[in-house]
Structure formats: structure tokens, C-alpha cells
């Protein structure tokens, strides 16, 4: 029998979907700013592995010579990014939703088993509530990263007025590197996130828009008789 | 009897799902559409009316000004720029822009003087020796360019606040802004008086203990560590005071007027 199971609160869904375009605009305008001093890359033993970013990339996204414009967009949309993030964190704390979210002591060990399962190396997955261990780590890390972006961003925006913050971020020069690295982190997160959502399927995806999942309660009762480790919850993965 | 009940219940669950899907996806796409419309409005919004600032989209300029006003609440002349030992200063000091310098073929360094506009009628001319006679202040700090690079540099000169006091420009420094221009008027900046009076703001004539080179703004340039490099005007020709924002080269190119750090 079908049953409606509440999954995501309104505020979680709201902040999630507001964040997506806002962060996209922040990354886009951030590229305009970064282009003016595109000093970063990855090299091993002096051999340049990756340059951030190659010319074709800049050309494709029409990045060059738009620093002033980039700053104007960046310093407007930073407010939406900040307020939206603050709203989510405040909600998570006051609603008690953080209990479902922050990693537990065994989460790091379990996350490894989740990874093996996702890679089809292992058949079973440890029992979970709303989020599995890997999700707990990922979704907590992304919030910490957001806080990091705000902090390093403020440190390079007003390094004299917020000198203590600039110092905490390792100085002006280093704060800019962290700010950039976190952005690359968001892009990597996004790629994995999209793949996981696609694999988890429609029911899971819908829950981030409509708030609920549909579960088959009769199947659930049956599965309760199985040993815990063999239960694969119908909650989906992402 | 029981089967019908179950059917009814099942139907109602099915209906509930449908209804909630309809409402939530409807709201989702409506809000998404609104967001796209809002974004298009911003992208297609006209440029500001050109004035002291220009070349930014009108709503973005409003936001820039409002944001800067908010952050100026945190500004204090007690907040000093971090300084470094002289040994950390770069030997090869970066030259980024020569506007107002390499476009001035008539410039004659020997006859240079700083023209301080006291009011609409009077101008006070000050030569470099008078300026060098004032107490010298040195600073080694991390110079920050709006482009994103930074470099530890060593500058020496007279504190702008000392300069204003010595030449009895007290009345003038009660105005809200100072305007500086190169001798040919090709490069110009406006500065809030607070930043002008910041204890680390210098009229510099030395770099790495040597007289400043032409490309770094000889004979006299501004070093204002609480601002991006674009405000650190090279080769000062004229100095003026006003309560309205003086014209500013990069603010006319779409950059934030204040560009403060």
C-alpha cells in the first residue's frame, strides 16, 4: 500500500533551491574577478598539470575584461548567498534537524561502506535514517565550506577593517587562494550531487520539491523481518 | 466492506499525492519563472546616468553604493594596515598602469610643483623641497590591486595629515572629499576625507629608500593603504577639496567609487 512519508521541510527546500541560482551567479561573477589575476594552477614537480583557466574556457563563457561588472554582481548577490545560508543554518539549529545532518562518531567508517555500495563493490549498506553517513559528511561539509567562503570573502573584501578575520584566514594572499579553492569544491560537489540524484531516482528528487516521498508500507513491513544490514531503506540516496 | 474502505483510502492517498505534486511543482515553476524574469530584468537594465560614476548597470550601481555605505560603518582610522619588516619589501615593484604619465610628453619634472586649490580663486603652489623638508614617514605594507594581486612594498614620504596641518589646510580638510589629478588631468581620483586623514596615508617621494622613478609616479604620488591601487594616484599635479564627490577615473569605468579595503 502506498503511503506518504514527509521528508524535507519547506525551509530546507526553499534554501536549497534559492542557493542553486545564487551560487551559480556568484561563481560566474567570481570568474570575472578571478580572470583579472588568474594566478592559480596545479603543478607537480614544476610540471603544470592544470591551469585555472585555459583561454578557451574564458572565451567560451565570455569572461575576459569584465572585472568591474563581476565585482558589481558579486557584491550584490553575496547578500542573498549570506542571508539564505544564515536562514538554513538557523533553521537547522532551531528545528533540531541538525541531528539528522551532522556526522556521528561512526559516520566516517560507515561512509566508506556507503561508497563501496555506491560503486557496486558491496551489496549492502549500513542502516540509515534520513541521510546516510556519506550524505551526513557531504551535507555538513558543504555548509562549513559556505561559512568558509563568507569568511574568506569578507577577509579579501575588507582586509583592513576586518584585519582579525584576514589574519584568521591566513592573510590576504592565502585567503584569496582558499576562497578560490572552495569554489572549485562547489563545482566538484555539484557534479557528484547531480550523479547521485540521478541514480537515486524520481521519488528522491521529488521530495526536494514537494517535501514527501511515497513509500510502499507493505513492503516496508516485510523488510523489517530481514537482518538489519540487509535492509536497504527506500529513502534513496541523496 | 473492508475492501471498499481500503480502496477509498488508497484512492485518497493517490489523490493526496497528486494534489501535493501539483501544488508544489506549480509553486516551484512559478517561483523559478519569477527568478528567471528577475534575472533577465537585471541583465537588460540600462546603464546608470553618467556622472561622477558611470558604466555600471543602474541597479548594480545602487547596490554597490548601498553595500559600501553599510561596510563604511566598520571603517575606522584606528584600523591600521598590517606592516612588514623592510626586508620583506619587493625589489621589483610592479608597474600596472601609466595613465596620466606616458600620455604626457610635455611633462617637465624640474618645474613640477603641487597646485593646491584653496578655493575657486586661490591656488597654493608647493615645490618638492618644501614637501621633503617635512618629517618623513615610511611604510612597508601589502599593496593591493583591484585586479587581485598584492605585493609588499616600501614607500617613504610625508603623512598627508602632516602635510595638511603644515600648510594650514585645516579649513579645506573639513570638506568631505579630496580630489587629486595628474598634471595633464588624464588620471584623477576622489577620496573621502577620512581616508585622506588615515595615519598611514602618504604623499610619497621615495620607494625602497630611493627617489621614486617616473613610472612609479615621480616626483610625488599618493600611497593610501586603505584603498585599492587604483586610488593611489601617481604624479600628483593638483589637489582640491569639495563636499561633492570629485571625479574618479575608474568609477567612470564601472568600478565602485570608494574601492576601500
Automatic annotation (TrEMBL), chain A:
The chain crosses the membrane at residues 17-35, 42-61, 73-94, 137-157, 177-202. GO terms for biological process: respiratory electron transport chain. It is found in: Cell membrane. GO terms for molecular function: electron transfer activity; heme binding. The keyword Transmembrane helix applies. It comes from the Bacteria. Residues 8-209 form the Cytochrome b561 bacterial/Ni-hydrogenase domain. The keyword rRNA-binding does not apply. Pfam families: Ni_hydr_CYTB. It is a multi-pass membrane protein. Its main location: membrane. Keywords: Cell membrane, Membrane, Transmembrane, Transmembrane helix. PANTHER family: CYTOCHROME YDHU-RELATED (PTHR30485:SF1), NI/FE-HYDROGENASE 1 B-TYPE CYTOCHROME SUBUNIT (PTHR30485). This is Thiosulfate reductase. It comes from Pedobacter yonginense.
UniProtKB/TrEMBL annotation, chain B:
It holds the Pfam family Oxidored_molyb. The chain crosses the membrane at residues 21-42. Residues 107-250 form the Oxidoreductase molybdopterin-binding domain. Keywords: Membrane, Transmembrane, Transmembrane helix. SUPFAM superfamilies: Oxidoreductase molybdopterin-binding domain. InterPro entries: OxRdtase_Mopterin-bd_dom (IPR000572), OxRdtase_Mopterin-bd_sf (IPR036374). It comes from the Bacteria. This is Molybdopterin-binding oxidoreductase. It comes from Pedobacter yonginense. The lineage of its organism: Bacteria, Pseudomonadati, Bacteroidota, Sphingobacteriia, Sphingobacteriales.
Amino acid at each position: 500500500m502506498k503511503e506518504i512519508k514527509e521528508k524535507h521541510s519547506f525551509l530546507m527546500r526553499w534554501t536549497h533551491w534559492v542557493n542553486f541560482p545564487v551560487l551559480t551567479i556568484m561563481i560566474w561573477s567570481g570568474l570575472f574577478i578571478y580572470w583579472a589575476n588568474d594566478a592559480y594552477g596545479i603543478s607537480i614537480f614544476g610540471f603544470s598539470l592544470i591551469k585555472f583557466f585555459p583561454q578557451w574556457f574564458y572565451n567560451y563563457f565570455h569572461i575576459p575584461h569584465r572585472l568591474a561588472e563581476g565585482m558589481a554582481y558579486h557584491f550584490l548577490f553575496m547578500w542573498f548567498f549570506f542571508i539564505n545560508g544564515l536562514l538554513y543554518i538557523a533553521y537547522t539549529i532551531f528545528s533540531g534537524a541538525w541531528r539528522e545532518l551532522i556526522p556521528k562518531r561512526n559516520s566516517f567508517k560507515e561512509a566508506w561502506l556507503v561508497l563501496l555500495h555506491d560503486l557496486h563493490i558491496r551489496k549492502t549498506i549500513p542502516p540509515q535514517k534520513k541521510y546516510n553517513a556519506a550524505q551526513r559528511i557531504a551535507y555538513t561539509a558543504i555548509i562549513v565550506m559556505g561559512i568558509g567562503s563568507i569568511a574568506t570573502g569578507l577577509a579579501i573584501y575588507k582586509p583592513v577593517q576586518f584585519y582579525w578575520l584576514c589574519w584568521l584566514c591566513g592573510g590576504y594572499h592565502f585567503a584569496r587562494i582558499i576562497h578560490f579553492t572552495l569554489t572549485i569544491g562547489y563545482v566538484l560537489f555539484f557534479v557528484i550531487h547531480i550523479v547521485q540524484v540521478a541514480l537515486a531516482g524520481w521519488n528522491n528528487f521529488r521530495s526536494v520539491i514537494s517535501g514527501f516521498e511515497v513509500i510502499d508500507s507493505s513492503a516496508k513491513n516485510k523488510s523489517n523481518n530481514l537482518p538489519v544490514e540487509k535492509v536497504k531503506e527506500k529513502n534513496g540516496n541523496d | 466492506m473492508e475492501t471498499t474502505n481500503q480502496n477509498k483510502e488508497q484512492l485518497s492517498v493517490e489523490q493526496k499525492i497528486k494534489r501535493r505534486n501539483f501544488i508544489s511543482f506549480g509553486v516551484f515553476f512559478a517561483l523559478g519563472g519569477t527568478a528567471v524574469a528577475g534575472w533577465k530584468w537585471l541583465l537588460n537594465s540600462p546603464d546608470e546616468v553618467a556622472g561622477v560614476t558611470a558604466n555600471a548597470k543602474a541597479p548594480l550601481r545602487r547596490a554597490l553604493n548601498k553595500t559600501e555605505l553599510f561596510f563604511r560603518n566598520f571603517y575606522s582610522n584606528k584600523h591600521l594596515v598590517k606592516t612588514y619588516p623592510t626586508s620583506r619589501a619587493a625589489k621589483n615593484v610592479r608597474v600596472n598602469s601609466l595613465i596620466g604619465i606616458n600620455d604626457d610628453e610635455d611633462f617637465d619634472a624640474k618645474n613640477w610643483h603641487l597646485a593646491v586649490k584653496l578655493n575657486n580663486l586661490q591656488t597654493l603652489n608647493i615645490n618638492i623641497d618644501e614637501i621633503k623638508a617635512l618629517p618623513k614617514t615610511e611604510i612597508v605594507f601589502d599593496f593591493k590591486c583591484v585586479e587581485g594581486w598584492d605585493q609588499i612594498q616600501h614607500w617613504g614620504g610625508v603623512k598627508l595629515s602632516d602635510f595638511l596641518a603644515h600648510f594650514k589646510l585645516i579649513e579645506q580638510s573639513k570638506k568631505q572629499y579630496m580630489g587629486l589629478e595628474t598634471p595633464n588631468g588624464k588620471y584623477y581620483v576622489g577620496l573621502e576625507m577620512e581616508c585622506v586623514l588615515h595615519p598611514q596615508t602618504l604623499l610619497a617621494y621615495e620607494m625602497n629608500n630611493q627617489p621614486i622613478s617616473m613610472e612609479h609616479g615621480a616626483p610625488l604620488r599618493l600611497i593610501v593603504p586603505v584603498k585599492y591601487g587604483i586610488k593611489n594616484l601617481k604624479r600628483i599635479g593638483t589637489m582640491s577639496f569639495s563636499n561633492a564627490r570629485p571625479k574618479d577615473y575608474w568609477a567612470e569605468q564601472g568600478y565602485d567609487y570608494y574601492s576601500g579595503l
